[in-house]
Amino acid sequence: MGCVANSSGWVQLGRVTLKGKGEWVQGVIAFTPQINIYSIGIGPDCTNNTNNFNFWYTTSMHYMDKFILAPKADFSFKTITALSGNACTGNFILKAPTHTNASYQWYKGGTAIANATLQTYAVPDNTDAAGDYQANISLPYNTCLNTLPYTVSFSD
How many Å separate Cα 135 from the centre of its chain? Predict the structure, then answer.
């Protein structure tokens, strides 16, 4: 009861700290299992639940809109690469992963970028362009993939 890690037989596979208030927050934990896994539990840090059982229920809620458990090789689609650019010179050109018959839509901070529908995206060279970029990749048969965010920053 309470915290999964307080039960015998459970092993912590990964840890991520997420904070949000009335919003979705993306979290990723990658791990390589050293033993057979029969079940996965997701929950709060047990140290926050030592003396007050109700604390967990009032401060930690976990909702998921996508939970994927598969070999890492199956997720090569997640990574955006920078073909060029850096924080000092700008000139960022981002590339989403290649997929046959795919269509692309680029996003900055969760908002679609108008006319940014190619596999590559040239980030404007101004400080307003700093932020997190993602690509939505639409494939045949109503399959849709989203990349992990790629952070672009500019140096003063």
Answer: 12
- Residue appearing with tokens 């539990």: 41
* Range list of H helices, the chain: 53-59
Q: CB under 8 Å to 46, separation ≥6 — which residues? A: 2, 3, 5, 6
With b for 16 or more beta-carbon neighbours within 10 A and e for fewer, the 107-139 pattern comes to bbeeeebeebeebebebeeeeebebebbbbbee
Number of domains in the chain: 2
| Position 108, amino acid | K
pTM for the model stands at 0.55
If asked whether residues 130 and 110 sit together in one domain, one would say yes
In 3D space, the residue among 72, 73, 97 whose CA is nearest the CA of residue 83 turns out to be 97
Which structural domain, as residue segments, surrounds residue 146?
72-152
3-state class (DSSP) for residue 17: coil
Q: Are residues 125 and 76 in the same domain?
A: yes
Chain centroid to Cα 49, Å, comes to 27
Compute the average pLDDT of residues 92-104: 92
pLDDT in tens, 106-129: 999 989 999 999 999 999 988 889
Please list, in sequence order, all residues whose beta carbon lies within 8 angstroms of the beta carbon of residue 9, skipping any fewer than 6 positions away: none
